[in-house]
Amino acid sequence: MALLATGLGVIPVAALGPTMGGLPRPDMEPVYPPEDAGYHSYEEMVAEIRQVASDHPDIVRLSSIGETYKGRTIHLLRISDEPDRDEGEPEVLFDALHHAREHLTPEMALSIIHLLTDGYGTDPRITAIVDSRVIWVVPMLNPDGLAYDLRGDPYRGWRKNRQPNAAGESIGTDLNRNYGYRWGGTGASADPASQVYRGAAPWSAPETRAMRDFILSRRIDGRQRIRTLITFHTAGELILYPYGYTYADRPSDMTALDERTLRTLAETMAASNGYVAQQSSDLYLTSGGKLDWTYGRERILGFTFELYPSGGSGIDRFYPPDELIVQETQRNHEAVLYLLEQSDCPYRVIGKEAGYCGPFFDDLEVGRGWLVDADGTDTATGGTWQRGVPEATNLSGPKQIGAAVSGRAAMATGRKTLGCASCNDVDGGVTTVRSPSIDLPASQPTWLRLRYTLAHTDSATPEDGFRVVIVSEGTRTVVFQDLATAVDRDGKWQRLKLDLAPWDGRRVQVQLEAFDMGAPSLVEAAVDDVRVTLP
Ligand code: 0X9
Ligand code: ZN
Ligand code: CA
Q: What is the CATH number of the domain that holds 160?
């Protein structure tokens, strides 16, 4: 138990009231004033989630993602039918209180926790959701800021965390400008006195580091389990989707498929709660925001909800009377349940379930666990497979194509030019790259679909080319081969559809191989949009 030195001797903190002998007790957790007693202070929130965890041990686990600057625990709830077992289910994250004064947001998180736990076993819709998803809730990311806000009269309008900056400078970092995706761009401030101070460096705040490390811990076998998220803020009655860093609707770091899906999900949710759906930057530009990192790096389809009210100005708009908590949190229940339901296959909402929600889909925009030279037997001396943005080369026509099929990235042999068209092509043997494991259903036939390009100069021979191999239970089967001939062939994206029937019910890996055997020639290959689809 924490001890507090006072003129009266050493007293256990928990034994003290909010004030003692009329003196303010700065080390005490402040509470809301009586007229706002419906809101939860940090300690009241902790007591409440502990109660929920002990009332519902069959579906709730309480843990933490780390500590705040001042050492407060940042709590985490996991809600799922098998609370201690990893079933590989789609995961959804809800978080609240990046900004201290946004008092309605932890109430929203608590409201979701109650909705899902109280409804489990009685409401069939909620039971189905909890049985088939893993739901994570971080109800208060910034309790240090909240405690400071609550020490005002009645509140201080505080937004940032409580981490000191350099001597003589203002305290606090805007946690929603401290994430490490395009940190430091327009839409944040380098001035520690600013309300939107970005911090000294990306991830300089312990709170954003804790959030980052938790989200990264949900990458299992290289693949991010969290599919969707909502980060709750106030105010404006808006549903925002990425990106915040640019006004472009679909910059190259967003695929067309994801843009349509984000917009459709946001519009459908907005239709249920009367909010306005828009791209984050339509509100204003932000850099270092949570949504940009979670989509840009992890490809989580995320939304910022700006809760009640829509209008108003001044700091009062962050402090609605507690009588409105129930109404303004329940207002979002349908949107929350809808997002949870769509999270196994978000592409369903744009009619793309069959093509993109099969056993496997990788647009190759971010690293998802492919392994170069998995067996350690590759012989290529240059131009090995690399995932990323391919650089265009030209030698009597385009050889490595600079444009990916989806987004901006693909898997390419020698992704960089290194100065000339023949400087970084496949040389000296074979280069291989292997996908993570894919479980094929036993009952339905599946197809492997991908886009590829193979380019070479007229010095090529049939000892050069591109192959697709299925690796399963230690055996290698070539399912496609495109061998070179002694002609000049330019790079061009081609479709491939291969029958995986022989592997029904099996666990497989897809291996891409490019090779330049015998006499050296210019050989370039690339692959994008690898999918295993159901009929
Ligand atoms: O500015 C913010 O951080 C959010 N609005 S608030 O009034 N609650 O401060 C909006 C952020 C949305 N943008 C991204 N997360 N990219
Ligand atoms: Zn906010
Ligand atoms: Ca791509």
A: 3.40.630.10
